[in-house]
Amino acid sequence: QVRLVESGGGLVQAGGSLSLACAASGLKFSSSTMGWFRLAPGKEREFVAAIIWSADSTHYADSVEGRFTISRDNAKNMVYLQMDNLEPGDTGVYYCNIGRFWGQGTQVTVSS
Predict the structure, then answer these.
(1) d(Cα 7, Cα 20) in Å, to the nearest integer?
(2) What angle do CA 36, 41, 110 make, to 5 degrees?
(3) Contacts of 75 (CB under 8 A, 6+ apart)
(4) Which pLDDT tens digit goes with each residue over 28-86?
(5) CB neighbours of residue 61 within 10 Å
(6) Is residue 44 a contact partner of residue 38, using CB atoms and an 8 Å limit?
(7) pLDDT digit string (tens) for 67-83?
(8) Residue 72 to residues 40, 44, 91: CA-CA distances in angstroms?
(9) How far is C-alpha 53 from the chain's CA centre?
(10) Cα–Cα distance between 109 and 2 in angstroms, integer?
(11) Is residue 50 a contact partner of residue 72, using CB atoms and an 8 Å limit?
């Protein structure tokens, strides 16, 4: 059974930082591309960042490029999202993703 569990969300002021983590189990983590998506109120779920299995390549949405950093630890089956210089527009529920599998999400709220 594939399970993705996010953690690390919370409330932060604009300009602050948060670190998200996703623990994966039940799949061959080391050969999977991992991604983070977010769902903001009144909007569709959108891509945030992705990292390939070898961690040699990362991809970011234009809106977070230069502020967010995705990383992974294949030995621990973990993927991380470091979010710096947060903006109110980053508010939403952040989801970890592998293929068709999704975590339950973690809430990030950025106050102005």
Answers:
(1) 6
(2) 70
(3) none
(4) 777 789 999 999 989 999 999 999 987 779 999 999 999 999 999 989 999 999 999 99
(5) 15
(6) no
(7) 999 999 989 999 999 99
(8) 24, 26, 23
(9) 15
(10) 28
(11) no
